[in-house]
Structure formats: C-alpha cells, structure tokens
Design a protein that fits this description.
This protein has a single domain, classed as TIM Barrel. The protein is an alpha/beta fold. The chain contains ten helices and ten strands.
C-alpha cells in the first residue's frame, strides 16, 4: 500500500504540548497499540490507522513488549509497517515501548530486573526494526527488585543509545518521586509517567500529579475512556457485542451496571457542551495541567477520527467541572 503523508499535517490541526520541563513536545492525542495491531487483527486496517494518525498530526506511537495478542505481535506488525511506509519519517516520530509485565517464561521474563528490562528492550528494537526508541518505560514497579536496579537499567538504555528518554508507568506517588531522584543522580531525567486515569479512576490526583508537576515530569494517561465505558456505548445498557457483554472481557457487567446511571448523567453534560461523551472524557483528561497527552486506542480509522474531534472543545467552566465531580462523587478541596 503506497502512502504519502498529508503535506499539511502540521497546519495546527494537532496541538503539541511540552512534556514536563523537557524539550520534547508530544501531540495532545497519542496512539496506543495495546489492542488492534496483533496477529488476530486486520492488519490492512491497522496500516490505515497508522497512516491516518500521522496525517492527523499524531506523531507518537506507544507500544509495550507484550502488546498483541500474541505478545510481541503489535511491535512486529507495526515495525513492518514503519519500515515499508514510514521510510524517511523516523525523525518525525516518537516511538515508545515498555517492559515489566510477563513476556516470556522463566525467571527473567517479567518485572523490573536489569536482566529483564535490557533484554526486553533489545527484543523490542528487533521487532520494531529500529535502532532506538524515543521513550523506554519501566511498565510497573517491582516489589522485589531494588528501585536503584530498575532505574539503573533505564539509565543504561539511554547511555547505550537505545533510548533517548525514559519513563515509568503505574508507579504510585512516593515511589515515582524516588525513581525520579534516583535517575537524576545517574544523570538521566525521568521524562514521563504513564498512569491509568479517567473520569472514574482518579487515583493520580491523590499525590501523583503534584509530584509530576513539582519534578517537571510529563504525564500520558492510558485508558482515558475507561476501556469503552465512557464512549457512549453503555448509555442505554450493555450491548451484547461490547467488552462488558463478553464473558471474559476486560469490563465486567457488574462494574458497568453500577456506572450506567453516572454515564447517563455525564452524557447530559457532554450534550450541553456540544460534544459526545467520549469527546468530553478526553477533553477532561487534557484539561489537567499535569497531562501532556491522552493515549487512545483505535480499532478503525473512523473511530480514530471521531476521538480526535475532542480537540474542538477543550475548555471547561468551573460549573461544568463541579457538576462532573458531583456525578462521580469526588470531593474537591478549595
């Protein structure tokens, strides 16, 4: 499939936001590869999604070693597309990957040891057919490995030229602060943190965002639409073909049923703003001063284009924020 990027892709359609106190800017919307790029997916559509994302100004593609399914296939498939269709564009792309969750059997295939992280990075580079990634993450904290060892592995990745920047994901506030200080002592800044964050899961507001703002670390939340709960699909109940409608889906019916009334009330506010619920949920993420970019998935070009439309209205009034907080039962100080 021949691909010629849109020559007007930097015409202002996508805002770029500085990542913490670094020199790097990321698009307000970034594309995640957790689903929809594995061997089980339609790779022609995957290719079209990558093309359209780049044309929309989405310059950041986010991977992890175990994305698929099967594990590793998202990097391998996307790596082939990057090689075939994005030749000469590497300097316009921010490619990230992560290691920490289970990837291969045996004692070295997960967690935060130096052995796992650096071996995983080499494997990811091989699958992606790249010489380096722009950002390499520790995907989760390891309770049994000294933090100095995990951060030391990230620092080595930078020092060896295999990553330009490093980040952490799923780290609680106190540990994130400590990780930042350890990296700083090694001459490497922690660029970014990737936590789960959405209207229904606001744990990062209890200390972590303060740490990130204080340290000058960027933030790129994943699951901003609560794995589909905030897309509007559940306003009238649980569709049979939805994630919650599947017996082994990530969303379970009981959890969704508890939230439907809140989803319906949130949708009223979205309609008053002239937005879909998904647009408002993404805009709400981007309104936080600690957030650099929102990480979205897409199973089709249409879905990608629809979600990017959240950028049409990013402003919230104090009254709207309070109404949203009241619906999701969050107390706000001050």
């Amino acid at each position: 499939m021949n691909y010629t990027p849109d020559p007007d892709r930097y015409d202002g359609r996508m805002p770029y936001r500085r990542c913490g106190k670094s020199g790097l800017k990321l698009p307000a919307i970034s594309l995640g590869f957790w689903h929809n790029f594995g061997d089980v997916d339609d790779l022609d559509e995957s290719r079209r999604i990558m093309h359209r994302a780049f044309d929309l100004g989405i310059t950041h593609f986010d991977f992890a070693n175990n994305y698929g399914p099967p594990a590793g296939s998202a990097e391998r498939n996307a790596g082939q597309i990057l090689k075939e269709d994005f030749q000469g564009l590497r300097d316009e792309l921010i490619i990230s990957s992560k290691a920490g969750y289970h990837m291969w059997d045996g004692p070295y295939g997960e967690w935060g040891s130096r052995k796992n992280l650096l071996s995983s990075l080499d494997q990811s580079l091989d699958r992606l057919q790249l010489d380096y990634v722009d950002i390499f993450y520790s995907h989760r904290p390891d309770p049994e490995t000294p933090l100095e060892e995990t951060m030391g592995a990230l620092a080595t990745a930078v020092q060896n030229g295999k990553a330009l920047y490093v980040g952490i994901s799923n780290y609680p506030a106190e540990m994130a602060s400590e990780a930042y200080d350890i990296l700083q002592s090694m001459g490497v800044r922690c660029l970014i943190h990737q936590p789960r964050y959405n209207l229904f899961d606001r744990w990062i507001e209890d200390g972590l965002t303060d740490v990130l703002l204080d340290k000058g670390v960027g933030c790129i939340p994943f699951s901003p639409l609560a794995q589909g709960l905030l897309t509007g699909r559940y306003i009238e109940g649980i569709p049979a073909d939805s994630r919650a409608g599947k017996e082994h889906g990530f969303l379970q019916q009981d959890a969704v049923t508890e939230k439907i009334a809140q989803v319906q009330r949130l949708n009223v506010i979205a309609e008053q703003r002239g937005q879909s619920l998904a647009h408002m949920a993404l805009a709400w993420i981007l309104r936080h001063p600690a957030v650099t970019s929102a990480l979205i998935g897409a199973s089709s070009v249409k879905q990608l284009e629809e979600n990017v439309r959240c950028l049409d209205n990013l402003a919230f009034s104090k009254e709207e924020i309070k109404a949203i907080d009241d619906i999701v039962n969050v107390s706000v100080e001050g």
